[in-house]
Amino acid sequence: MKSVKFFTDEERVRLEAVKGELLRIAADIVRKEDEERIHSYLDRAVEQGLLQRDVFGINPVVKDAETALIVVEEIGLSRGSVLSVLLWSMVKSGAASLDEIRKDFGEEVAHILHGLMRIRELYTKSATVGSENFRSLLVTFAEDMRVILVMIANRVCVMRQIKDTPNVEAQKKVSMEAAYLYAPLAHKLGLYKLKSELEDLSLKYLEHDAYYHIKEKLNETKRSRDAYIERFLKPLDEKLKAAGLHYHMKGRTKSIHSIWQKMQKQQVDVDGVYDLFAIRIILQSPPEREKMECWQVFSIVTDMYQSNPKRMRDWLSVPKSNGYESLHITVLGPEQKWVEVQIRTERMDDIAEHGLAAHWRYKGIRSGESGVEEWLAGVRSALETNDDALLMDQFRLDLKEDEVFVFTPKGDIFKLPMGATVLDFAYHIHSKVGNNCVGARIGGKNVTIRQKLQSGDQVEILTSSNQTPKQDWLGIVTTTRARAKVRQSLKEMESRQALLAKEELERKMKNKKLDYEEPVLMHTMTKLGYRIVTDFYAALADGKLDMNAVLEAYAQQQRFDHGKASPQTPEGLSADQFVLPEKELPLKGDGGSDVLVIDQNLKGLDFQMARCCQPVYGDAVFGFVTSGGGIKIHREDCPNAPQLRQRFGYRIVKAKWAGKRGSQYAITLRVIGNDDIGIVNNITNIISKEEKILLRSISIDSNDGLFNGSLTVMLDDTSRLQQLIKKLKTVKGVKNVTRS
């Protein structure tokens, strides 16, 4: 075999031993032709210099062989899983493609290897492997539950070989992942031996002194401990036999990791751990007598030994949510030592041994992953059928359908509800990021704030200092957190704008030498149709009320309140103070035809610009008398104009602009173009550089490389509007800009 040169003498000996053991156990799994093809791939990888040792210097081929042995011996997987493990290093190094594997070994092997490749990709994305979200995302990315089992076996193999590594930092990192990620998964799968080994080895590498302290204590007391268990069980055995019960008992000492956890929790040394000993009494009871006989044993045990009522756990009357049933009691045995006794039937023990329970909450594993729990619930039973196809069909990874997991560019993972948008994610990171969000980049492609996120997306939020929250954002965000932050930001913006409007009004009063009088201002507000102060200042801030018109109305009201003037008749009012008499319109004669002159601020007239066409100073316009007596100004080319003229010709009033006014108008532009990188920033930059133009909102939808955007801006006349449209058309990627 050409690949021999890649191995040391020790590795060759080890590989041959593992190979022999693997072929002995899995003689009906690995075929002769499989072995020959694997050797062929291995020779190719070595010749091309593609195989690399890991950070611990471990030979990847030896590691794969030992992992395959664990997969067969400890877990019981069959051909697809074993061959996937043996071929993993070849695929990872690029010596073999998935298409080649599919051709030579079949779809099943290629499918598992594809899952392993996705897990590798996940590791490269995430810098926070220790997070709880990563555990759920790992299961989601695996696609096939056998991938998780292979990963657990691989981690056990690595942990066994890094005892004497000089790379202490890498040793600690791998050990933390084993303790936090792989041991809990092994626990839920019912792989208790592998779970305990991972926990003990991680403790050995992370808490070296504590591990060997406990180990030495246990070694010192092993003989006396075994003798103690025998003394504890002997009188109990006699009592149970006398009661006519059929049972068997197990006595054991808890694992080093379990003892260490209790030492930490109880703040005691090894000798102070309550239930260092554990006894399991397993009854052979028919279903109808199970509970009765369990309680009978409970009574016999507590009659013989004093129990600690605080340590009693009754999962017989009310089983755990995962189906676990048992009675746990802690009693004071001979020599005043605490011993935990577990009472259950063979049926209950079978359920526990198949991974449905085994104290995963008691051991400190969080229970917030209900989807993972349901997915893994029947895994052990399916494994015992040795039918990998059944496993694949039964446990398709459709779990966590109500959640998505996304990455930041730095690799941090965040969990969001299914359906969450880019804007939700921006607010999840920070409220300031959310407030300034203009979109995101996912997979190198720009997307809008409305884009829904998928698990595994790497999301880079794009922001602009010109961006501010909009009212329609409340319809984009889906999370309660984001919605609350949008509302809070809108309220704060409204308060700030109202405060600025108040300060500007008071400053202009001062410039016009008008004394600020609260009662006079209240009367003015009432005459202008505002009863709430905040609404009044908000209208000033939004441009719905013209500042100069308010000052003029205030001056008139002040003179009247001081008795220096009498109330004006309608004929003496300017347009902004005009109160529409019944069946009259504010018209001016012009060659025998009545024309409505749009002068200054007409809000006091219940005068509004129509939203359907958004007239701007300079547009050809006409007035339309509404059923409520107010007037709306429409553009001559308004989409609704033909229908209004046909059905309500008697309500149409000619209108013209009296002169350029200081206020700004809201208009909406439609922008269509190619979805190029940075196009949103280019558009907003042009608008921000324009004098007397304010961007109110921007919304862009992208589909198949094209975007359709909607911009709302504030400007003062049509000439400025035409200039803006012309400049927007020069932006790279923009195909057309039209006014709505």
Features:
single chain, 740 residues, alpha+beta, Hypothetical protein af1432, Beta Polymerase, domain 2, Ubiquitin-like (UB roll), 6 domains, six-stranded mixed sheet, 27 helices
Question: Could you outline the blueprint of secondary structure elements for this entry?
Answer:
Blueprint: H1 9-25, H2 32-47, H3 60-75, H4 79-93, H5 98-105, H6 107-125, H7 132-142, H8 145-161, H9 168-188, H10 192-206, H11 208-220, H12 222-242, E1 247-253, H13 256-266, E2 277-283, H14 290-304, E3 306-307, E4 313-314, E5 327-332, E6 338-345, H15 346-356, H16 370-376, H17 379-384, H18 388-394, E7 403-407, E8 413-417, H19 422-429, H20 431-435, E9 437-442, E10 445-447, E11 459-463, H21 480-511, H22 518-527, H23 533-542, H24 547-561, E12 587-590, E13 593-598, E14 607-609, E15 621-625, E16 631-635, H25 641-647, E17 652-657, E18 665-674, H26 679-689, E19 694-703, E20 706-715, H27 718-728, E21 734-739
Parallel strand pairs: 2-6, 13-17, 14-16
Antiparallel strand pairs: 1-2, 3-5, 4-5, 5-6, 7-8, 9-10, 9-11, 12-13, 15-16, 15-17, 18-20, 18-21, 19-20
Helix pairs in contact: 1-3, 2-4, 3-4, 3-8, 4-6, 5-6, 6-7, 8-9, 8-10, 9-10, 10-11, 11-13, 19-21, 21-23, 22-24
